[in-house]
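Quick one, tokens below. Sequence please?
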């Protein structure tokens, strides 16, 4: 059986972040920039670049509320998260023209969530053959310049591309 890379296997990376406290609560307090990586703020949730992306444009949709799972959020927040997830895919299609997406969440540490206390949805653009590409880069840190470029492209595209605000 062919090995398929899964974006949900992120325990190591998210554990690495956990030492600093809840990063999703912390970044909300900072101004949006290539440093805090928030590309869009909604009313109940925000969209942020994954600091350790698996492919260019790997986004996270995160509620402002510090809750460990979807059941603990109110319905309006869940609805907005799904809307932002949809908008994220639309924005990413416009920039990167991916052939597919992985979208989902690790709920709880046993599922592989590193930041298990603050639920979030991953959106990862995918291309045929990127598994081999990414496995060769899996241990390589993404250059800050590349992340800054991604940040600007996604932020700009979000400003132009969303019509329901
Ligand atoms: Zn939090």
């Amino acid at each position: 059986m062919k090995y398929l890379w899964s974006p949900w296997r992120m325990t190591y990376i998210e554990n690495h972040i956990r030492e600093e406290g809840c990063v999703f609560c912390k970044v909300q307090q900072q101004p949006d920039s290539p440093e805090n990586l928030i590309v869009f703020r909604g009313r109940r949730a925000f969209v942020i670049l994954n600091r350790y992306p698996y492919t260019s444009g790997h986004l996270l949709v995160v509620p402002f509320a510090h809750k460990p799972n979807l059941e603990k959020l109110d319905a309006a927040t869940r609805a907005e998260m799904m809307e932002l997830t949809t908008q994220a895919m639309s924005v990413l299609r416009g920039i990167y023209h991916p052939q597919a997406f992985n979208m989902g969440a690790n709920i709880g540490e046993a599922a592989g969530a590193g930041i298990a206390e603050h639920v979030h949805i991953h959106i990862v653009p995918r291309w045929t053959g990127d598994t081999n590409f990414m496995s060769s880069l899996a241990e390589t840190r993404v250059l800050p310049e590349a992340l800054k470029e991604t940040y600007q492209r996604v932020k700009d595209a979000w400003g132009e591309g969303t019509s329901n605000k």
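The two ends are 45 Å apart (CA to CA). Residues 1-5, 8-18 have pLDDT under 50 and may be disordered.
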